[in-house]
Amino acid sequence: DAMIGQISPCLSEGDIMIDGGNSHFKDTERREEELKEKGILYVGSGVSGGEEGARYGPCLMPGGENSAYNQLETIFKKVAAVAEDGTVCVTFIGEKGAGHFVKTTHNGIEYAIMQSISEVYNVLKNALKMSPSEIRSVMAEWEDEKLGGYLMEITVDGLGITDPDTGNPLIDLILDKAGQKGTGKWTSQSAADLGEPVPTIDSALSARFMSAKKEDRVKASEIVHGPSETYGGDKDIVIKSLRDALYGSMIVSYAQGLALLRAASIEYDYKLNIKEIANIWKGGCIIRSKLLFPIVEAFEREPDLTNLLFDPEFSKIIGDWGLQTNWRLAVKTALDLGIPVPALQASLTYIDSYRSAFLPANMIQLQRDIFGAHGFKRVDKEGDFHIPK
């Protein structure tokens, strides 16, 4: 806001201002309205790609006035990354704060996938006692298959970095306290405002909060006892189960984020084209992956898809008994050993909740009516009811 205050007096009616930072979509909408009074067009553009994106082309998610985007489209397309299938990774997202909302949600998905990968790494490291080089070899195989994507690429590369001072793997020397810039929190808050469940993203956010409590965790490790972290069974079975658990959790991470975009599009009248959003995410951005190609195909089959899990191809993948058995084994193994896997577990629970025709919310409604007279619906008749007095 201070920067806008400095720049806006130098601008004339019809000029365009672009905000390419991580701004909250509500702030973007407020700024757009304020500048509109002066005849200045404001474009809130999500930008993803990090340092590599700055050099070789990012994924751009511009929102605001369509007329402003039309004037900038040629420039944006020259700047944007190009995916392996030739897709230029920019499209007009929607009016108002749509661009920044989509970028925030992108970051929420990013949080979820990063946490899922880190949990798999943790089980391989602490349960199977694998070295960074051994973990790297396993994940490199996965990266070459269906789990391929930027976050897996940098994970594999990072596991191979040696600290020049000690000669030890760098990963073993990095303090286990994760930072954040706030976009993951915004995603969870926005989802709560819209009543859209995103438990994998929520768990990833909470995991970062927990990591920050390093001193408390060290103290608790000495006085709060639990099971041994070491696994004594067949390592190959656990490795295979972790691969499937990670694959499932990645799919669910995208499913939750895209469902949130759909909810926001309806509530805020953004008119988001989710297929096009997934399409531009195929290159330049942090969450680019092989999974985005079938995700685009899913929204080509059904543009109004409520949830990725309703797509016949993805429901087949998630419903595959072999994958689910391995996923459950991975989570159970970790829990039996006392190793936290909040994202892998939250993703699995999301699947189980979503496919449950019945959830025990009737008990919650009964309790709410007993202590607060909130009322409840019945399954056998219309209307609002209370417990008999």
TrEMBL record:
Pathway: Carbohydrate degradation; pentose phosphate pathway; D-ribulose 5-phosphate from D-glucose 6-phosphate (oxidative stage). Residues 99-389 form the 6-phosphogluconate dehydrogenase C-terminal domain. GO terms for biological process: D-gluconate metabolic process; pentose-phosphate shunt. SUPFAM superfamilies: 6-phosphogluconate dehydrogenase C-terminal domain-like, NAD(P)-binding Rossmann-fold domains. The keyword NADP applies. GO terms for molecular function: NADP binding; phosphogluconate dehydrogenase (decarboxylating) activity. Keywords: Gluconate utilization, NADP, Oxidoreductase, Pentose shunt. Homodimer. Belongs to the 6-phosphogluconate dehydrogenase family. NCBIfam families: gnd, PRK09287.1. This is 6-phosphogluconate dehydrogenase C-terminal domain-containing protein. It comes from marine sediment metagenome. The lineage of its organism: unclassified sequences, metagenomes, ecological metagenomes.
